[in-house]
Write a structure and sequence with these properties.
- The structure holds two protein chains of two kinds.
- Chain A is an alpha+beta fold.
- Chain A is built from five helices and three strands, in the order ααβββααα.
- Chain A has one domain: Sufe protein. Chain: A, CATH 3.90.1010.10.
- Helices cover about 40% and strands about 15% of the residues of chain A.
- By secondary structure, chain B is an alpha/beta fold.
- Chain B is built from 14 helices and 17 strands.
- Chain B has a seven-stranded mixed sheet with strand order 4-10-9-8-7-5-6, sandwiched between helices. Chain B has a four-stranded antiparallel sheet with strand order 13-14-17-16, covered by helices on one side. A two-stranded antiparallel ribbon of chain B has the order 1-2.
- In chain B, helix 3 packs across helix 10 and helix 4 runs parallel beside helix 5.
- Chain B is globular and about 70 Å long.
- The two termini of chain B are about 45 Å apart.
- The chains are: A alpha+beta, B alpha/beta.
- At the A-B interface, helix 2 and helix 3 of A face helix 12 of B.
């Protein structure tokens, strides 16, 4: 039986306590996108600026549990200055860790992208043992994908 | 016991309370979400399937007659339980949500026009909000909201002005988040004085206190079976004979017709014109058994027990946690049901209840399908413990211990922010 320490790793609580990139960016020019977890009412707001296919800056607002907030904090640190392609590969690797396989048959275990280093995000691996909390961990990632879509749609009509 | 309920004996009637979770006792504090079921309900449903299962209102053989009598007998029990003047005023639905949708979509579409006003309160469940939003989009009706006060009561200051000219006033008898018990009769009278119909969402009231729909004087009353010791899959809409006659069918097909030709159809009498298709027969039998069980306890004793235990819980939480805990809603237990929504320090409710689960304590975390109320309260989510007939002081103590364990776990790991 998974215990609380499988879920609440110290690094998760550190990001919850001292979230990185917390705040707002003036929108516009930044893109502002809200994400909701209808299950528990958590709300996340992502402010994003992009340039030349790269995540230039990102800020996180909203409120949520330690899992959703720490996931958003770690994500913001991991995607800054990364190309969209790198962000996508990171997102897919993170979702694969959450047992969500993107862009294929979810019943076949697609081999993980060996080049992708999850770093601190590895701490969230225990979430998969608490299926209800997977949506908490993925909320910010889904919202980021939407934000990149909207940012690129406005930049390149 | 200080009240008229032998809780040890009641607990023994609920098989699920014997099971272990995470190596300990199951402490179920989520009855506002769904209640547990006594053996009498489980046995009645199993007995029906093992002995009398047949479709209703059509067979000419013995067990079909037994099944019909079982369904209609359950309807009569529910009618008596809520003080309905006639059994035919009791419509079986799937749940309270369907009951409220029936009111909005069947009565509302037939009787409301663009610009008509529907009055709701800020403490409604989404089930009493979203169907009216849909009518706003579809017909152009307007919504007005009765506000709540800082201590979780309904603010009646401008009641008459807010309901003036309205066609519908629809409200919860008891809040599923705050536990607040609303002044139903006063709201019904204000609605009728304004020329509006009064719709009562009694989902959190019927299971917990004696209910008399005739004394309320309402036009429609909706509630569900699974929160009152009955099974899932059956709800109730009570309406006066007059308003049910004036309401067109909601769903259509078999059972709800008198005659069908290639050219059209004529509807069955109430309540059957609202019960298209094979109804939830076994579930009705289970609900009837739940009514018998609650009547055996006595609804006054049920209410007295909940007031007493809610008072104990409010005092215990205040004594052990002081200002670290914030319990929303009325401070006086005599003005509320056994629903306690709370926040604890900076801990997110989802993190709190995750720790509770390790201690076998079942408590809901989230917005409780009442997001407009959450916004008024200025929180995104709360933890909600809710009490019922099988809960006792030891369960409340277990909740307090679990809160203390969560506080310790998160402080050991470093206090969030």
């Amino acid at each position: 039986m998974p215990g609380l320490e499988d879920l609440y790793r110290e690094i998760i609580l550190d990001h919850y306590r001292s979230p990185r990139n917390r705040g707002e960016l003036p929108a516009p020019p930044a893109t502002r996108v809200e994400g909701f977890n209808p299950l528990c009412g958590d709300e996340i707001v992502i402010f994003l600026t992009v340039a030349n296919g790269i995540v230039e800056d990102i800020r996180i607002g909203g409120q949520g549990c330690s899992i959703s907030q720490s996931s958003a904090s770690m994500m913001s640190a991991a995607v800054k200055d990364k190309t969209f392609d790198e962000v996508l590969r990171l997102t897919n690797a993170f979702k694969a860790m959450m047992s969500i396989h993107v862009g294929g048959d979810e019943h076949t275990d697609a081999p993980p992208d060996a080049d992708v280093k999850l770093g601190d995000l590895e701490a969230l691996r225990g979430v998969v043992k608490f299926p209800v909390r997977i949506k908490c961990a993925t909320l910010s990632w889904n919202t980021l994908a939407q934000a990149i879509d909207e940012a690129t749609a406005t930049k390149d009509p | 016991m200080s009240d008229g309920l032998d809780v040890a004996a009641v607990k023994a009637d609920f098989p699920i309370l014997d099971r272990e979770v995470h190596g300990g006792r199951l402490i179920y504090l989520d009855s506002a979400n769904t209640s547990q079921k006594p053996r009498a309900v489980l046995d009645a449903m199993a007995h029906y399937y093992a002995n009398s299962n047949a479709n209703v209102h059509r067979g000419t053989y013995l067990i079909a007659e037994e099944a019909t009598n079982a369904l209609e007998g359950a309807r009569a029990k529910v009618a008596r339980f809520i003080g309905a003047p006639a059994s035919r005023e009791v419509v079986f639905t799937k749940n309270a949500t369907e009951s409220l949708n029936l009111v909005a979509k069947a009565w509302g579409r037939a009787h409301l026009r663009a610009g008509d006003v529907v009055v709701l309160t800020e403490l409604e469940h989404h089930a009493n909000i979203v169907p009216w939003h849909q009518l706003h989009d579809e017909l152009g009706i307007e919504l007005r909201w009765l506000p709540i006060t800082a201590d979780g009561h309904l603010d009646l200051t401008d009641l008459d002005q807010i309901v003036a000219g309205a066609k519908v006033v629809s409200f919860a008898a008891t809040s599923n988040v705050l536990g607040t018990m609303l002044p139903v009769r006063r709201l019904v009278d204000a609605a009728h004085h304004a020329g509006a119909i009064a719709v009562v969402d009694a989902s959190q009231h019927v299971p917990h206190a004696a209910t008399n729909v005739a004394a309320w004087g309402a036009d429609f009353v909706a509630f569900t079976g699974h929160k009152m010791l009955g099974p899932t899959g059956i709800g109730v809409l009570w309406g006066t004979s007059e308003i049910l006659e004036a309401t067109p069918p909601f769903l259509s097909g078999g059972e709800m017709i008198l005659n069908v030709t290639k050219e059209g159809f004529t509807t069955n009498e109430i309540p059957w014109k609202f019960e298209a298709g094979t109804p939830p027969i076994a579930e009705a039998v289970g609900l009837g058994a739940a009514v018998d069980y609650l009547e055996g306890l006595g609804m006054d004793a049920v209410r007295e027990h909940e007031v007493s235990l809610t008072g104990y819980a409010l005092r215990t939480l205040a004594e052990r946690f002081g200002d670290d805990i914030c319990v929303h809603g009325p401070a006086d237990e005599s003005e509320r049901g056994g629903v306690m929504s709370f926040t604890f320090k900076d801990l997110h409710p989802h993190d709190l209840t995750q720790v509770f689960d390790q201690h076998g304590v079942c408590v809901r975390a989230g917005h409780h399908c009442a997001k407009p109320l959450m916004r008024v309260l200025g929180v995104a989510a709360t933890a909600r413990a809710s009490l019922y007939v099988y809960n006792d002081e030891a369960d409340v103590d277990a909740l307090a211990d679990a809160i203390a364990a969560a506080a310790e776990f998160f402080s050991f790991s470093g206090p969030p922010r």
